[in-house]
Fold these 3 entries.
Entry 1:
Amino acid sequence: MNRVRLLVLNAALGPLDYRLANGMQVVTGQVVIAPLGPRTVTGIVWDEGRLPGQEVDAAKLRPLREVVDVPPLSEPLRRLIEWTAEYYCAPLASVARMVLSSGGALGGPTTTTEYRLSGGTPERMTAQRAAAIAALEGEQATIRELSAIAGVSEGVLRGLVNQGAIEPVSVAIDRPYLPADPDFHQPALSPDQLHVAKQLVQAVEAKAFEPFLLDGVTGSGKTETYFEPIAEALRLGRQVLVLLPEIALTENFLTRFEQRFGAPPVQWHSSLKSTERRRAWRAIANGDAQVIVGARSALFLPYADLGLIVVDEAHEISFKQDDGVRYNARDVSVMRARFEAIPVILASATPALETLHMANSGTYTKLVLPSRFGGAQLPEVQLIDLTIDKPGAGRWLAQPLVEGLAARLAAGEQSLLFLNRRGYAPLTLCRNCGHRFQCPNCSAWLVEHRLSSRLACHHCGFEGSVPDACPECGESDCLVACGPGVERIADEVRELFPEARIAVATSDTLGSPERAADFIAQAQAKAIDIIVGTQLVAKGFHFPELTLVGVVDADLGLEGGDLRAAERTYQQVAQVAGRAGRGSKPGEVLIQTRHPEAAVIAALADGDRDAFYAAETEARRDAGAPPFGRWASIILSSEDDREAREAANRLGHNRPHLDDVMILGPAPAPMALLRNRYRYRFLINARRSARLQAVLRDWLAMQDFAPGVRIGVDIDPYSFV
Ligand code: ADP
Ligand code: ZN
């Protein structure tokens, strides 16, 4: 082959043709650098005949510049890139970028310099230097990282390097990972676990595509169960990918993994240092990394020999990416397993309706763990009707819940209060003139955070300080906080129980792996009596002494125009309820609601999952919603309101008229302004028979859009803002 067609990593360009330079050899999937005008571009040598484009005259072809020294992308991965781009109406280049996510992995130095104490003392010792030396005992990292650890400036550390008290060490970036041992510590599985594990192990041995739903109640021991097929993949020398929805859950997983396999897995997430990214990427590509645990982006890495994918808490909405390529990692993981011809396990106590539907119809193999491990009982659930048991003015906890907390405190047991709202109050207004604090960049109220004394927008990150006087009428001491966030609930608890040790657990307080690990250690050591937290603590955690879960506002998620609101509420409350009574002591769940009659709340109270799914299935069938029909959304946005509105109107004017595709809109999106962009939305509801993506592509291709207009196509959307 002398002529090659490249998929180039630039979404504005189509495929480009080149010829090989003299003596150069490439295979399909090879990553290469090619000249482009005066610059260069990274590309992937693509399969002949699969990328449409016109043939360029052979004489005009320019030679490739260089072949990048990484293994070529495998055929299953190339098919996955094509499928993802096609299904989610995204540019191939954008998907390919996710695969080559670690630019640094493609080249650059193979060693880096880190620093550590040399054992020597500086000629001139100051208090600051002494403190830095004490803090750096046993540490080795870059100067910047050491300065964060020691809490001194980089200048101070460089001074110590000059004086010989700190020495540089050359570190190989691509050094190997510790090997995991499949037989390091084999736990005794329950008969149910054994039965399920055996089928999963067989599927790994069979090396064939098979999707599983591992449907096990909270605390049933799903993790220990799926560790068995992971062990089998290790024995066969194949790689395993475990997707987790949240970095905060990773710590817990790492500990358990290490106990089972004697070494930590390889991690992949957004807060990895760039050298760690490079190390992981290359080890994954050349097959040295065995088990990779990561966030959704780990799905697109170039595994050398993948043998199994596990998606834990597979129903979680954080598997859905809402910008760039808007994919759902749960669904794409099934497609990757299909292209790789391997099993995939979707584990959940509250599966997505779509997943359950696939399992009930036999498309996925359903494996059930019906009871909690070790004889623990599922908790007792009670509703508190807030229209009867009214909390006092400016209070949010009803009497029965307060009594429950008091009883647990007296018994030395732990409680968890769940409210899915960060900060102190979701809205601040002026009592005098009614002014409401709104984000300047978004159609959203600013949320007061008292812990950091800021008013913050949860959509764009805008922050301001809380003023002393109203910016509108100038009146001082007139600002009132409306409604509760977790910080306000924590204040109420503090007032009720001054002696209780309280922890607020949200992405604000547990943002980094270290802080999450710290929190888990404290909760397990019983140094916390009452946890007040958001959905971040609703799942995955196992605190044996936690016996009471209070849901502060079960109705919260039911407001708004979200098509999956009922399902999400069910999942969230059932998951957080699942934190209670996981040890030897029985658990209790108290759910505060204004709508005890709502189907989803009643199902939660009765612990009747089947009733909920049955009712929700019928509602979806009537609405033509997934899994019976399909939704998509298109959002046109621009910094100029008129430009966005006109583009949307024109697109609306050109809409296709089809029997099996219903197009609603355009209308201002619920978030009509987001990050300074004005947004107009179409909602599309299609029958399963429709060729939805082709319809949308043809429709969008009919129109030229002004350069300032951005078009976001969301297939199977989870966000309706
Ligand atoms: P799930 O993920 O299904 O909610 P976990 O996997 O967290 O449940 O298991 C619940 C608890 O039971 C954990 O503390 C886990 O370590 C323990 N456990 C589960 N299976 C076993 C086993 N076979 N042997 C010992 N402990 C187990
Ligand atoms: Zn904002």
Entry 2:
Amino acid sequence: MDAETKVYAVIGKPVRHSLSPTMHNALFKKYRLNAVYVAFEVSRENAKEAVGGIKALGIAGVNVTMPLKEEVARYVELSEAARAIGSVNTIVNSNGKLLGYTTDGIGARRALERFTTLEGANVLILGAGGAGKAIAYELSKVASVVVLNRTVEKAKALEKFGVKGDALTPENLEYYLELADVLINATSVGMNGDRSLVPREMLRSGLVVMDIVYKPLMTRLLREAKEKGCTIVDGLWMLVYQGAESFRLWTGIEADVELMRRVALERLGESK
Ligand code: ATR
């Protein structure tokens, strides 16, 4: 590092367990870029000052995580997708102008496309929170999407993207799952405790099942889906691809996703 080193960062709270510094620093090393990626713990009250700091210090690029994704969207220039979902997870500092993007939806899409074709597929998303919304927005461009949410109003609010929104009830789950090619858990269920929103007997081979939860990597949903012969896509693939998309926005380089996954897995193993 020297006086020319470009600084990149993730902001949010908590960030001390973030895998982004690990993944991006591995990429900077691989592509021999004079850059470093660090983590700044920033609470919601300080979001505006933090964005001012990015500008003042000339930080080259930033990832934004919980709980700042919506708040930060108020202070940067938004891409079409970031405006549509009202959330920013990537900031590009373009000669002092801060541009806000969201790569969560694209991350999910590219992770899925690694394993299946989405054109014309029937996709069932469980959850209409920040992640569910971003994924529904992106996938609705190519697939036929249904979103089920515990709080039905939040699912209905996504109908403006051309998706179908409904309540997460056992009846709806059974009905829409029968029609689905791809099932995505975009809720936090599975993160704390070995729980799944989908009864094992509803899963069948041929279905592609993705979970956005990556800790644990093998959630109950994915474990049972695998036992039933489904194709499974874990949450680390989504994390890796959203990071790769941020990296592309900052550097123009198509990142080595295998490397990103390998170093992230090592880091996850260490923190167990
Ligand atoms: P994120 O940004 O990670 O999506 P979020 O915005 O807090 O986080 O959203 C969490 C999602 O998980 C929501 O869809 C939430 O449903 P509600 O909108 O009804 O709250 C869903 N969720 C969390 N716990 C759940 C549970 N036990 N059963 C069903 N859905 C749950």
Entry 3:
Amino acid sequence: MVSPVIGITCCFNEKTGRIWLTKYYIEAVAAAGGVPVVLPVLAPVSRIKELLSICHGLLLPGGGDIDPLQFGEEPHPNNGEICPQCDYFELQAAVKALELEMPILGICRGAQVLNVAAGGTVCQDIAHEIEKPIKHFQQAPRWHPTHTIIIEPNSKLKGIIGSRVVKVNSFHHQMVGKLGGNFKVSAQAPDGVIEAIEDNGTDKFVLGVQYHPEAMWRNDKYSQNLFKALVNAAKNFNVKQNCINSKSTL
Ligand code: MN
């Protein structure tokens, strides 16, 4: 078959009116053999179904904090900048992609979007949730790993990454809170911070990581493995099925 198309959502800057995405996601998907296509977060939500119908997989990238009202909580004082347009578009896209059983990889904010789309919550500030947190907002180059994660032995992530303990980068002050849908925790930092979630007990490729493999893959085979796994899962996803099976009114 032709190379699978990986739809990647993006960010929006209200002040400049620009939608944007750092190049790393595009490079990482392309290097893994996928065709990256940016899905504009300002497209009408009524067109999400059509946008996804040209994709074999969905990548939800990093970005700002999700509006806590989206998961039924009032904002913690340390909650950061929010983009209502991004929240609305990405949550709807994630809901739709979950319904289609499309391969999904969520990265950082994307892992949190995935969890909220499945009915879960976000822990709004690690420092107030974890008793003795390690540093999760590193002051080192983005490609440089600064803490370890421990991967669950019986997880899909372990099968994909190929190792149980890996070093990752870290740029977050939030993490997945209450798990949504059928998700389970598949990796944690030594302080207990959730670093990866995945769909439990099915063959579906639906997973989220809190770190940024798109910034590490050039030097890190474990990060490469993650993007290759997304592209391989997307190869097996049938776009025609995607259109035919879709019953949503979105
Ligand atoms: Mn971290």
